[in-house]
Write a structure and sequence with these properties.
Neuraminidase, alpha+beta, 2 domains, globular
Length: 419
């Protein structure tokens, strides 16, 4: 009897330890086959949830032995506590959602097979058009007519001439303008979309922004009279400029700490993505190779962080001799994490993976799960696409999810109906 009790205890206890250790690490982003889908598009009990079922089964099997022994009673309570903690950790994971919808309805908007426009790095929507930022084309931007499913044209040559740019950073559509940074020139570029669509002469507005040893913007988001920059900053998580592009002192910090890295080098190592909501005067920042995102509110007096996601994956670093900080991200020990974000006036959409960072990058960040939060950080719904898209091309409006996928001989832009 004692031997049976001991074996039962060891079995359940070891199972509990294993489940508690891996419940957050479990890769829930693997593409689900129809045999693993539950009713109404809900993900079936697989992975962590099935492990929890095993634990419950084992406890039920040995519960009489636990309850008839004084020491067993304490062990029984301990194991129940492990279950409670494991379930709580699982529900706090950024990609755990009670509300899951599998998208079935979709169509293809455009294929570049006959046009030779390849290498889409991002997509933004303007009225009935998708504006793509290109990686390998002669032009930075290509425009596609969603309704007619045709390639409209390209704009923004690479170079130093008129209507040419050395680089184009993260783009956004602001007040009917394409806005981006030309990093080598330290300029914010404003391009009126309508003039491009009407094939008229384009009047480009250029603003110089400060770039110093302690203030190094990489991408800039415009929110009313402020510009919020991500990059590398000596004393803060992000940089802030006023309407005249003067630096505003703003105290902000990373939600995690590494004593090995300080000052300007934090932004060099821990890179980010930023998206803005001008209507609510908010912006969201995510940290690469992690499950961390933060929501901030801008007021006349201050910038306040209103939400920080519960996180389990702080970016891991490794010594890297020869670079200024002495450290770099350890891609082999990190998850891919938050790969991209897209926003509307009401929601934040996140493409996230628990896969190893190097593996995720090697596969082209092809993902089929999209996490939807409101601007208070509350979970709304997880969307499951019928097949993976390139996460960096994620784009959304109030009805559709847009994304591109590269095939051997073409790139196809797809549209997925959310409701």
């Amino acid at each position: 009897m004692k031997l049976k009790f001991l074996l039962g205890f060891l079995t359940v206890f070891l199972t509990a330890i294993i489940i508690a250790a891996v419940n957050v690490e479990h890769n829930s982003n693997k593409i689900k086959t129809p045999s693993k889908m539950g009713k109404n598009g809900q993900i079936g009990l697989i992975g962590v949830e099935s492990n929890m079922r095993i634990l419950f089964f084992l406890i039920r099997m040995f519960k009489n032995h636990f309850k008839t022994n004084n020491m067993g009673k304490y062990i029984y309570l301990l194991l129940l506590s492990v279950i409670f903690i494991s379930c709580k950790q699982q529900k706090e994971a950024v990609n755990y959602f009670d509300n899951v919808k599998t998208i079935i309805e979709y169509d293809s908007i455009y294929s570049d097979k006959n046009d030779g426009v390849v290498g889409i790095m991002s997509l933004d929507k303007y009225e009935k058009y998708l504006i793509a930022y290109n990686r390998t084309s002669d032009y930075f931007f290509s425009i596609y007519d969603i309704e007619d499913g045709v390639y409209f044209g390209s704009w923004g040559g690479r170079g130093r001439g008129p209507n040419e740019f050395i680089d184009a950073g993260m783009i956004a559509i602001v007040d009917s303008q394409i806005v981006f940074t030309d990093g080598p020139k330290r300029e914010i570029i404003y391009v009126p979309v309508e003039r491009i669509l009407n094939k008229e002469s384009v009047n480009i507005r250029r603003e110089s922004y400060p770039y110093t040893a302690d203030f190094r913007p990489l991408h800039i988001a415009i929110i009313n009279d402020y510009k919020i920059a991500i990059g590398a900053f000596k004393d803060s998580r992000f940089g802030v400029l006023d309407a005249e592009n003067n630096i505003i002192n703003c105290s902000s910090d990373y939600p995690f700490n590494y004593e090995e890295i300080s000052g300007i080098f934090r932004g060099v190592v821990f890179q980010s993505i930023i998206k803005s909501n001008r209507g609510q005067s908010k912006f969201v920042i995510s940290t690469n190779q992690s499950d961390i995102f933060e929501i901030y509110q801008i007021t006349d007096a201050e910038i306040v962080r209103t939400y920080l996601s519960p996180f389990n994956h702080i970016p891991k670093i490794k010594p890297t001799p020869g670079i200024n900080s002495g450290y770099n991200i350890d891609r082999d020990r990190n998850i891919g994490g938050i790969v991209n974000m897209a926003v509307t006036d009401d929601y934040i959409y996140i493409m996230y993976t628990n896969k190893n960072s190097a593996e995720s990058s090697y596969s082209g960040h092809l993902l089929n799960e999209i996490l939807c939060f409101n601007w208070n950080g509350e979970k709304i719904r997880k969307y499951i696409l019928p097949f993976p898209i390139n996460a960096i091309t994620l784009c959304v409006d109030n009805e559709y999810i847009y994304g591109a996928k590269d095939y051997e001989s073409e790139t196809i832009i797809y549209r997925f109906k959310m409701e």
